[in-house]
Write a structure and sequence with these properties.
5 strands, alpha+beta, 4 helices, globular
Amino acid sequence: MRVEKLGPGGDIAGYATQKYEVYVNDELIEEVWSSKDEELLGELGEVDAMIRFQACASQMMGGNSVESDPKYKRMLQSGWMLKSIEHEDGYAEVIVEVQRIEQKSIPSSEFEIPAGYTRMSLGQLFGME
């Protein structure tokens, strides 16, 4: 696998981006636009949790887990992904495309546990237990 940094990728949702291309066996599998804007990163926080989530989700879905590759992780750590296009079998599919980012105050009631909530394992959630 290789990750190529192509340089400036234009503005997305008002933030400057860098564009990357991800190749496996010399075949383009993904285009990524990410922003390292300090204000944006300060608001969104560490990207490490999102990187771990993507790697786990990919493995669960039976993917080849490109997301687990150290080169891919380094690319993701360089900024926050604002757009991603995956390429497979001659098709391109937009996976992530941020349209707008806005700052809002969210009432604490939005974070309350909903009535009827039941805690369950991931296996139970997917009907595997």
